Model the fold of this input.
Amino acid sequence: MKILALVPEAHGGFGGIAVYNRDLVDACCELSRVSELKLLPRVLRADPADLPAKVDMVRTAADGLASFCKEVAKAAFEHHDAILCSHLHLLPFARMAALRRRTPIIGVLYGVEAWNPTGRFLVDRLARECDGLIAISEFTRSRFQQWAHVPESRIGLLPNAVHASRYGIGPKPAYLVERYGLAGKTVLLTLGRLDAQERQKGIDELIELMPSLVSSVPALVFLIAGDGDDRPRLEAKVAEMGLRDRVKFAGRISEDEKADHYRLCDVYSMAGRQEGFGFVFLEALATGAPVVASELDGSRNAVLDGKLGEVANPDHPESLKAAIIRALAKPRVVPELLDYFSYENFVKRLDELLHRFAPASSVTLNAGLLKPGKIL
Done:
């Protein structure tokens, strides 16, 4: 089985979409009947690393729209058994690649881009015509179906995977305690892009809730990890509220320090309104941190509707405060149910979905280790 994968970013990318697509690509290559995966990234932010041997990444596809179109046109003259399109806005390119043959197109529904019609007639039409669709969460699948009316049989679920071995419980890292001045403090953590176009992550709500939270938890400090063009507004808001000693901005943190930041916190929360899933909750849980998710977006699916963490309504401050207080009282432990989101289960689910949406090729699991791939 040969797969053509069109992705906004994956290996060599940053953020939640890149993480999901890396696992998607790697999991395809774990399947023994997948002989080759041609990867066309729309964006490359860093040198890609750890490519599986079956992957041919066409790096020039990320050199701009014209280059991406050129590489898609080339791929249209090649044989592929399935086209994996990991963003709705890339569906016109997937259709271009499939023009010469009736190659099955499998689209991915990641988050807010799929919750409502995109406003692009062609994209919306192609979304309805995909041979199969992979939704990252039940919430995203439900929101998509409300407007697209695609039969449920053509939409499968493939939630994020967490590689638990990369995390684990540990003491609060002394170097981070010193860096942020958190000795003797109780830490509430949020991690994410501070994007002015994405102000629905629940950060404003937590800042506004801090005076009330501190009255109940006097040692509490809110640490915001991440950077973006909305940071100056948030910093100004913190200053206006007189919370500079209670709300700290960590800036963008490296992947090497991410697990330590989760170990630093006593509770992780990102109770907002725009998460398609919320991979950060799995990362925090993998370090044993209690979490507080939102009941208004896909993050409720990341905590299995309350089985893995607290769920709150960010529109109701008292609900959010009560959930954080409950989470602070919980012991630090990696829940057994987190195995539901293991990478091994991710591979198995993908195997079933490829059987379902590209039935011409029989796919079986390969227990062999991945080997380095190549970049064209």
